[in-house]
Structure formats: C-alpha cells, structure tokens
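Encode chain A's predicted structure.
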Amino acid sequence: YYLKDDDKTIEVRNLYVKYIETILEFLGQSKESAKDDVQKILRIETHLAKNFMPRADRRDPFKVYHRLDRKGLREKMPDFNWDLYFQESGVPGVQAINVAVPDFFVSLNELLFSDQKTTVAEIKAYLKWHWVAAAIPALPRKFVDENFHFVSQAFSGQKQLETRWKRCVKAVDQGMGFALGKAFVDLSYGSEGKTITQKMIQNIEKSFSAELDTLGWMDDLTKKQALKKLNAIVNKVGYPDVWRRYDSLIVDRKSFLKTLLNSASFNSLYHLNKIGKPVDRKDWEMSPSTVNAYYDASMNEMVFPSGILQTPFFNKDAPMDSNYGGIGMVVGHELTHGFDDEGRHYDASGNLVDWWSPTVSKAFEAKAECVVKQYDSYESLPGLHLNGKLTLGENIADQGGIRLAHRAWVDSQDSTSFASEQRFFLAFAQSWCSKKQEQLTRMLIKTDPHSPPRFRVNGVLSQFPRFAEVFQCKPGATMAPKSRCEIW
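Encoded structure for chain A:
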C-alpha cells in the first residue's frame, strides 16, 4: 500500500492521509500542522516499507532465522542505544536474539542516523500517531467513528460499526482472553465433545501414517523421519490444562484507556518473562474462545480451541460425516502444516533442520510448484489474481486436510453411502461460507496467506478425484480437470 502506484492503491493512500489528518485535528492540531505531520509520518513509514521482507518470502523459515544476538544487532544498527532499549523493556540481560530481517535494521539505522537523518520532530510525529492509533478503541466516539470510516472505505467495505457489546467482548478477549475463555468453555464445551474430537484426531493421524506408505515421491528414510515427527505431535483440544492467571492485571473501571494500556503491558511482560526459562509446553497462543486453530512448527503441536469446536465445524450430536467434513478437515489441515513448504523444515523436536533428502525435497518442490500455478490462475476480482506463492502453505494444508479427513472418516465406518459422502463434502463447503465486500477482498488478496473461501473449497475439491466421483462430474469439467495437483 506504500509502494504501488495503481489507482486503487493511490486511493487507499489518499484515504489514509485524510484519516491521519482528521485524528490529529481531533487532538487539537491545526489543519496546517496536521498536514505537515502526515508527510513526516508517511516518509518514515514508506522508508520502512521499502526495506521490509515481502510476505511470501517470510514463509521460508531459513530466510527469517538469523541468530545475531545483541552483538550482531549492534553491528546492524550501531548508532542505536540497544542497552538502554533492553533495560527499559525489562530484559536488560538478554543476549540470545534472532533478527528476522537484518537488512531492515541496517535501513532503520540509516533512516535515523545518516546525513539525511530523520529529525526529532519527525520521530515525535510518528510515535505520537502510532500511540494514538493503538488507543483509538478507548478514545471518545468521534475517534472510533473516524477509524471505522477509514477502515470501511479502504479495507473492509463494512456498512455499520459493530455494536458496542461485540467491541467490548473483543477488547476483553484481547486483554484477558483466558479469563473470558474459561467462562466460554464452562458454558459451551463439555467433556463429551472433547472426547469425540480427540478420537477424530487420532483417526486422522492414523490416516496420515497410512498415506505415507502410498507416497511414491518420498524415500523410505524420509518416510521414517516423517512418521517420527507425526508420532511426536502434541494435541491440545478445547482448553489448556493450566489456566493463565491475571492477578496482577489492574482493571480500572473508571478508565477504559488505562485498562487497555495496562493489559497491553501485562501481556507484553507475560511473554518477556519467559526469557531464560524452560519452554512452557502447556502454554497456548490462542484463547479458548477463538474460532481458529493452529500448528506450531517449533513446538510440533496442534491446538484446537473450543471456539472452533462448534457449529458449523463441529456438533457432538451431528452425523460423523458432517463432523469429519467440518472439524475433521481442520484437523487434517493443521496436521498437514507440519509437512507443508514451511513446516517440513522442522523436525520432530521442533528444531529448524532440513531432514528431507535432496531428492525428496526436489520432488516436493515440483509438486508444490503445481499448486502455486493452480492458485495463481484464480481470479478473485476482475484483474486481481491470487498469489500462489503467498498462499502455498495454506493451500497445501487445505488439500491435505480434506484427503486425510475423508480417509479417516471412511476408515472409521463400517460402511458409507453416496449420500453420506455428499454430506461430508457439503459440510466442508458450508463451514467456509462467507460474504465479503470488495475492499476487504482486495486487502486480503495482498496480505492473507489463506486463499479466499470460494477457492479454499472449489480449488481443493477440484483436485480430489473422489469428489468428482461422488457428484458425478464429467471428466474435463471445472471440478474434474484432466490434470491435478497432488502432494499429500
């Protein structure tokens, strides 16, 4: 959004300029002062954007792992007082540091300290803007409305601001999500649902093990290592065994802003306090009420919060074909992430190690390139194609997820029918039903590693021969192409 000059991008930038100007005027600045500050802010942000690694490249874990430590960080950005920075951050002794994008800090040093260095006035304008922008949810209504108008016009197309109670729930989830999550779990998720889900996960893991035996492109040694990684995966379902506590979080009932700032500090310190301590294998990255799931490659674990273990993905009283098509596919998706273009670089213990043989890696890359080209060809809006490289990992996981879930469901049944198989596929498709405005679609195409829902469904099922058989698609039809991409 900073670097491209097509009409749509320029339109968004112009809206952003107007948005910042308006917020600064709300703070008491004159129109002239606000306009001047916007140019200072944009100069800094554009410089940072020019030296930021593209999103698609950041998917390669080797490109974002640079163990430089504090000494190496000083060499990249020598004019910055790193000792004072870490002291003020509350971790004065930290030495072990991964610098994801070293060139970014070289550029930042240039921005702040070169002959054409950024002035103190520019730095103040930049920091003031970002501090206020982060606090807008807790500021008076005119700030909230102006933020909504900008986001709606530029990125979401949303017609109305969310109701107050929804915004409040989101704020609580962000600030103390595990306290909220415990209440959610107590009301919505019982032990029976957890037992069913755990059994489904076991069946899907068995399916992956069986699929390994059928892979002609993977040699026996790599298969052995893949099976070792599969057997080492830790599954977390529903809610954590140990609930995160918020005893030291100060909630100020008279000031939402103070509480917002307190919670930001509290959660930042929660993570900083982990430095130098053993890895907490019981920790969760998502609150239990979150409608999402994830695979953590460095922990080799899958996590399924109770928020996603509900309709349309899961219902303990629903037929199992529907549950496998819904949450079963999600489980298979997260499992496949352990072996996608990014996850495959981590071993059973979560170490960044290339454990695939060169021949197998080359075969995988050729198959992955097929998936890249497949999704590059999809046009979401006129003239706007998907980015097959950016979405590669999620597309691989989607395609692996539906196959694993289908096999696990079939293998767990005494018998199946076309009707129940159709329900399986329909449950998968319905779980991704959504509506988005054009503005949001455009933004997500540029930034989201997931393909739009329409292609997460049709793009996946068109590559799965069994779907074409069940729905009697004629060979060569859109959902039964003559050539298909297949990895897992």
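The mean pLDDT is 94.
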